[in-house]
Amino acid sequence: MINVLATEVLKARRSRVPWITALAFTVAAAVGGLFMFILQDQDQDRARSLGLIGTKAALVGRDADWPTYLGFLAQTTAVGGMLVFGMVSVWLFGREFSQNTVKDLLALPSARTTIVLAKFAVAGAWCLVLTVQLVVLGLGIGAVLGLPRWSADLATSGVATIAVTAVMTVLLTTPVALAASAGRGYLPGVGVLMAAIFSAQVVAALGYGRYFPWSVPALFSGLAGPDAGSPGWLGVVLVVLVGAAGVAATALWWRNADQDR
């Protein structure tokens, strides 16, 4: 397992994909900071000078404070994280087929299940690092802006919400790995990822998000607003079941599939 993990880490380290995902989360934290910067201006001079009057109008009703900013970061983790974390899984599993390295990988003296578990372990660690990066950048940007209503309890609660949202989002990307594997490439994984994101928005809008696992992180982060309510224990259980089923199904497919090309 250690050798396989080292191999997967080496692949990621020599790729540009980690830098791209890190850039995406950097932009997310910066955008949140920009929104807070605009909301701090009561006279709309900043929004007018930046040509963002429409953005200011869209943010009416929100305050430029720590609860709002931490909530924005949690919501970014739910939606943007699904896209970025999903692309991590697509790359880790789909690259072996797109680059025709899967036979070389399976020829190594390591069990196929071990290879799959190593890939999921790297994906989880990768997404954890991205989440930590988002939190650190967010805390730094909020401190620079001097956002009000800071407290240790608020920070703990906000960071915990971001962390739980990230864990649930990572679990929901495991079926994407199965799609990239069974489809033998990037495109099937990307297709399933886009379908999941689109379906999550539709189901949540219809009011049944708590019963649809891919809508649960957004509800938990408060993206749907206070009127949507909490996903409850059922939603969390569904997310865990999807994550476990995705890992098991992917490992089963790798163990039994014939690699004939």
UniProtKB/TrEMBL annotation:
Keyword Transmembrane helix: yes
Keywords attached to this entry: Membrane, Transmembrane, Transmembrane helix
Keyword Protein biosynthesis on entry: no
Pfam families: ABC2_membrane_4 (PF12730)
Listed transmembrane segments: 20-39, 69-93, 114-147, 159-180, 192-212, 232-254
Protein name: ABC transporter permease
